Amino acid sequence: MSDRSVKVSRVIKAKKWQLVRLITHVEDFPRFMPNVKQVSVFEKSRAGATTCWSVEVDRIPLSWKERDEFDIKKGIIRFRAFEGDLEEFSGEWRVRALPTGETEVTIEAQFKIGIPMIENIIRDAFAVKLASNFDAMLLALEERITMGRYKKISRQLHRDLNGFGVIGHPYNFQHLVRYFQFYKPDIKLPSREFIAQLFDLTPAYKSYDIKGFKSMTGEEANGYFIMCPIIPDMIHIAPEKVVEKVEQACRVAEKLNVGIVTLGGFTSIAGERYGKTLSSHVSIPITTGNTLTCAMTLDGIFKAAQIMEVDLPKAKVTVIGGSGDIGSTCARILAEHVSEITITGRNEKSLMETERLLTYLGKARIHTSTNNDKAIQGADIVLAAASASQSMIDFNHFKRGAVICDVGYPKNISYTACSRRDILIFSGGIAQLPNDFHLGFDIGMPSPRALYGCFTEALILDLEKRYENFSMGKGNITKERISFIRELGKKHGFDLAPFFWGNKLLTEQDLDEIRSNARAAV
After folding, report:
1. Side-chain half-sphere CA neighbours of 325 within 13 A
2. Of the candidates 290, 317, 333, which is a domain's last residue?
């Protein structure tokens, strides 16, 4: 019976010598390769080694002793088992530098199980398992290199890291279609179900290079838009799948050597709920961008309240989605300025916890509700911070003269048609940039100088070379950090964006008309 061959390869962003050194130190493998249980070195020299291995191949225990030959200059490590569970087992690691500066690592092996009768039946299946095992080893090597690179951040030695990653996704199915049409205007679309399933099957990938963004100080930032192939409703159906895709996107960013990555849209919800899980699985610093989003949201609310002549100390505020990260943070700060706050949500336990916190910290009276339409009646200010694919409220329930800030994603309230001209609705959490910014396709912004706060936060942190988990996990946003990121933004020329109602810029004339209508007798 002839031997069966297995071959796997992976391109890793590292120098050839780094990988050769890592591969020849097999005694370290069990520390970072979960499938390698034990490696003992009997003897070792520059020419080779004799080692004993204990590995788990998809729950199948496999042990052997081998002799290794090192050809360091050529980047080849040959091995041949002389004792073990397999009748024959040999092969080589081949490390090859690429013109791109990356390195290709290949493992090729031949094996013979040596058990009569079942050899023919199981050897192909075993080959698949062995190939998967080798692939896991190469992935572990790549993660080891990445971890070492990001460890330098704590010692302020991050010369190898530069730029930022923006992880985003379409906000609904039609947005996904527009994304495809941007790259291929004459595309003939297959069925909705076929596209959705293909998109679900697709791993995260780099979609667009962001080059040469200039700050007001002259500093330059470069980054990447990384597509996380989810459609918002998936967060409710399979949150573990969303976390898996966010992890994939973070690994794409790691391969690009960026210093920080921000979670846009619904991926930030994964960051809020599963921040510890994400941080433990990847090495790159992550931010949800929620701190700057809160800063821009609050700045917008205070400015809009002044325009609409809302008396803040007497104001009643409703926060839709008040137990979420952005909603609860803004409610906490607004509670210092207004008389009454009602927070809404679907989870009564979360609402009760948020109510206790707000009652303890703020001056305002706090109420809770699970009925959005009822909660907004009589409210002078409404902050819509819940993420939903459709508007959750009836516009007729808004009080005349009310300020409505839509900071959810997608922004369903400010983009929903409304005939009322006696209320001020605007998209919140949006920053004004000192220069145009492009992500390669329409992301729902009405101006190339307007950008979501979550994306802008990563841009500012990269300009400052502050590669850290700045906004990560629910409940970690403080008033001090909001002030800090706001001031960093102003240093580089970032400020609150003008008021937009959907895609339309609200002019001074529009604002005067809305205020005048609000003053009119009912």
Report:
1. 29
2. 290
The domain boundary residue, chosen from 257, 274, 290:
290
User: Are both 286 and 298 inside the same structural domain?
Assistant: no
Q: Residue 511 and residue 379: Cα distance in Å, rounded?
A: 19
For residue 93, the enclosing domain spans 4-153
Distance of CA 95 to the CA centre of its chain: 32
Does 300 lie in the same domain as 430?
A: yes
What CA dihedral angle connects 370, 376, 382 and 385, to 10 degrees?
20
Residue 37 burial (CB < 10 Å; 0-12/13-18/19+)? middle
**Spatial CA neighbour of 313 closest among 295, 337, 297, 288:** 337
* pLDDT (average), residues 402-419: 78
For residue range 501-521, list pLDDT tens digits in order.
877 889 999 999 999 998 885
pLDDT digits (tens, 9 = 90+) for 167-192: 988 877 888 888 888 888 898 888 88
- Buried b / exposed e along 336-368 (16+ C-beta atoms within 10 A): ebbbbbbbbbeeeebbeebbebbeeebebebbb
Q: Does the predicted TM-score (pTM) go above 0.90? A: no
- Could you write out the three-class secondary structure of 61-126? EEEEEEEEEEECCCCEEEEEEEEECCCEEEEEEEEEECCCCCEEEEEEEEEECCCCCCHHHHHHHH
d(CA 488, CA 493): 9
Helices (H), 362-400: 372-376
- The pLDDT score that the predictor gives to residue 192 is 83
The token duo for 230 is 């989810």
* 199 touches 228 (CB < 8 A): no
Give the DSSP letter of residue 475.
T
Burial state string for 88-125 with b = 16 or more CB within 10 A and e = fewer than 16: ebbbbbbbbeeeeeebbbbbebbbbbeeeeeeeeebee
Structure tokens given for 262: 């921000």
Return the residue matching tokens 């959705």.
196
For residue range 278-312, what is the model confidence (pLDDT) as tens digits?
Answer: 777 788 999 999 999 999 999 999 999 999 999 99
Q: Which of 209, 216, 223, 296 has the alpha carbon at shortest distance from 262?
A: 223
Question: 215 and 249 in contact (C-beta within 8 Å)?
Answer: no
* Tokens matching residue 292: 């700057």
The reported pLDDT for the residue numbered 489 is: 96
Measured over all CA atoms, what is the biggest interatomic distance in the chain, rounded to whole angstroms? Answer: 95
Check whether residue 269 and residue 357 sit in a common domain.
no
Mean per-residue pLDDT of the chain: 88
Q: Is the peptide bond before 410 cis (omega within 30 degrees of 0)?
A: yes
SS3 assignment for 213-249: EECCCCCEEEEEEEECCCCCCHHHHCHHHHHHHHHHH
- Phi and psi, residue 357, nearest 5°: -65, -45
Q: Which sign does the torsion angle of CA 167, 246, 262, 446 carry?
A: positive
Nearby residues of 267 by Cβ (< 8 Å), 6 or more positions away = 167, 168, 169, 228, 230, 242, 246, 249
